[in-house]
Every structure is written in C-alpha cells, then in structure tokens.
C-alpha cells in the first residue's frame, strides 16, 4: 500500500541509450503528490526521452522507475496498466481526426477504464465545458484552432483522474497567441491539485507554475531547485549559460 509520504514518481539512476549513444545518464528524480516539477534544457538534453521512459514508450537500459510503490520497469509489469494511471499530452495533439471532440475525450474512459458510453460522454462533456469548449463537443478536431485542440488533448488526459500527468512541450507547436490559453489550463490543473511532470521551453511559465525546476543537459540533471533558486541564483555555470541564452536570445 502506498503511504502518503511515498512519491507519486521516483526515477532511480535511469540510463537510456540509443545504439551506443547515452541519452539519459543516471537520472534520479522524485515527484511528490500535488507537486509540479518542470524540466528545462536545450533540445536534445533528454527531457522528452525521460517522459517517454516514464510512460513506458521507451525501455530503460538501467535503473528503475517507480509509480508509487510499483517498479514499472519490471519486465512483468503490463504497460497498459501503467498507462491507465498516467495522463500524457505531447506537443502534437494526437487527436483522432475521424472522431468528434467529445468522442476523443471519452475514448480512454470507455476502452481503458470500461465505462459505458453515457457515463464516459457525461464526464467528457463536463471537462469540455470546464475548459470552455462545451459547444465544440460535436465538432471534429480539424475545425478547432491549435490551442483548442491542445486543450482537448489535456482534457482527454485528465478525464480518468490520473495519478500523474506528463506534459511534453505542449505549447511548442502553437502560434504564440494560442500559448496563453493552454498554459492557463495547466495553471488551473495545478490549483486543483494535479501531480505534473512537464517539459517546457516557456521559461516565464516555468517560473510561475513550478514547485521545482530541473535543468537537464546531455542527459544529466545539472541543477534542480525552486524557481527562485534556478532563475535568480543558479549555481552551475551551465545553468547560467543556458538561461542567459534563452532569456536574452539577442544579447
């Protein structure tokens, strides 16, 4: 039984190689219940690969990943049973174009969690209304803006009240004017107590929403701390160099 002090997620000395190239090199990380941990770092630093190992889309070469008390890297663990407890949103919305917005949101509730159509769609409509898209329930995804599609993808991910929500650069495919509406929804999820591990290149948002910020470089956690520590007083030269580059790209 998981105790209240057990982290929702524990990554313990995880290594991931593609061929002979190490992409994750001994990553260790914990996420407590109701905590928002934000991963930052340049492209290729390992952020997305880490999220994929947690959702068992990529097997690890060494180390362990625990969801609560369960070692989900144990070969005997059923990946679908793990994914049923983890909500995931990627930068490309991955909505099914041939299904209505409501059917997209209700799909996992029906197929993974065994809810009947009426119950699943009632929950889906409740979520769509909550994110301001209740009137779009019968539309198909291609009739929505990118920001609206991404909000639908988030609604789909949280429909089953997952223990952990993974968000992978969810604004990077959006026009700048649409970024705010998606990040506002993430802020609401934080207020409602969701447990979130997210990768983002939006430094201002990371500073406002994170409980902890983790900076990765070349598959290694270089520095981690509160937003104030990382953004106002970074200790590692690599962190300082990265932040100087992304916060002052012309300077």
TrEMBL record:
SUPFAM superfamilies linked to this entry: P-loop containing nucleoside triphosphate hydrolases
Superkingdom of origin organism: Bacteria
GO molecular function terms attached to this record: ABC-type amino acid transporter activity; ATP binding; ATP hydrolysis activity
Membrane topology: Peripheral membrane protein
Keyword set includes Transport: yes
Keyword Transport attributed: yes
Keywords assigned: Amino-acid transport, ATP-binding, Cell membrane, Membrane, Nucleotide-binding, Transport
All copies of domain ABC transporter, residue ranges: 9-243
Signal peptide: none
Compartment(s) where it occurs, according to its Swiss-Prot or TrEMBL record: Cell membrane
Stored Pfam families: ABC_tran (PF00005)
GO cellular component: plasma membrane
Protein family according to the UniProt entry: Belongs to the ABC transporter superfamily.
Protein name, as recorded: Amino acid ABC transporter ATP-binding protein
